[in-house]
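The protein record quoted in full:
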Amino acid sequence: MWAVEAKNFGENADYFYLSGLTQAESKKLHKEFANSGEWAYVRSWDKVAEWEQEKANERIRNWKKDVA
């Protein structure tokens, strides 16, 4: 599952977030947003990989407590 985020900065900044996409869908949307000139910041990422990294970070934090 992939997500796309786009935002502008400053007062009344626009923000867009959508998840539950396939990689192909997120790449297409990312490309459209990035090339539109309407967004200051666009990113897309793999949510499953993000969750796995968070779990690994938690295991490392817990391991560190056991060693100390």
User: Anything to note?
Assistant: The CA atoms of residues 7 and 20 lie 19 Å apart.
